[in-house]
């Protein structure tokens, strides 16, 4: 209120309009002031403005309205006042920023109207501090913008439904996932694309969802083109009154890869755990890190008995050096293959095995040398038996050749003499040789032949006995 009006209250009885002014202006709980439209100077100010802005009444009356604005906002004030100057009656309102005496910038809602004081054009201003509301509104808008950014840009499908399960909104990912246009999905019942197990009614599932009993899981989804996918869903009822949200991720490919992995693991188990070969993983020092279950049926040693122990402790001392020397080259050659060597089994006897070792230390899933070993004891014993048999037959053949040579050479000499002497006796002409001499030669040749025959029989008997 101006000084003149204050003096009027002191010297004479105030008018009814002045009392109303006093009540509406000075006693108003909202900050108010009047300023001169031409000079911007503040003409009057109420107590609420003094309390809210921190200036005294005297300080207010020496200020212009430009002092209540941050410096960067002054051009907007000048433009607004220029608009007021062009009208005789004008009500305006809007959101602005004001500065308190302590430098704090606040958000205010300004409502103003043109008034006249002592014939001068002025504007009555009512200021409402909305700093808290503006901050809350900014947070709300930021939250909405975040949700919109997520809603519009996430790769997961987001569907919003009403209480009846009808689609009211969806993002682009939903359209891509289901293959529909937005207009086609608007109002569509989600039961039209959800494939529930046979015998389970949708209304039961929907009721359980609204009660918070079903919030996530897997479901079959029918696309517009008739194909089916598997979706992993996370749902939340009543994100707003009567509004329910479901986020769907297409896990069809992931489940297929998981199925392939499980099949691969089953094949691995069949090959490694139940196979005829002994599979092991050792570190670069030969210490066992993993041993397949086949170690027990093959060697009579359970896998856990190997873990942490060195493989070379089981190798026969006569074979150990050669196998170790070959193993030490594994860093140079990714794969090595051993000659047959002896490996101690659970009973303390040695089995013949051969090993193919592959260096997979650089593979994080393995982290060591994979040793694939095969028990060849039976094959080695059969090979040895064959060598013994071949040697026996070789010796037999050698004796038979000797017998044959005897028959063809040693027997021939006395037999030839006997045949010649027999011819002499048969002809009756012994060439002047006495008969006794001829008979003596016959007995000598016959004895020699008998000796040869006996030797042949002896050797033949020996060959037969050796064969048996």
UniProtKB/TrEMBL annotation:
Keywords: Kinase, Phosphoprotein, Transferase. Residues 17-88, 143-187, 264-334 form the PAS domain. GO terms for molecular function: phosphorelay sensor kinase activity. Pfam families: PAS_3 (PF08447), PAS_9 (PF13426). Its EC number is 2.7.13.3. The keyword Glycoprotein does not apply. The keyword Kinase applies. It comes from the Bacteria. It catalyses: ATP + protein L-histidine = ADP + protein N-phospho-L-histidine. NCBIfam families: sensory_box (TIGR00229). This is histidine kinase. It comes from Dyadobacter fermentans (strain ATCC 700827 / DSM 18053 / CIP 107007 / KCTC 52180 / NS114).
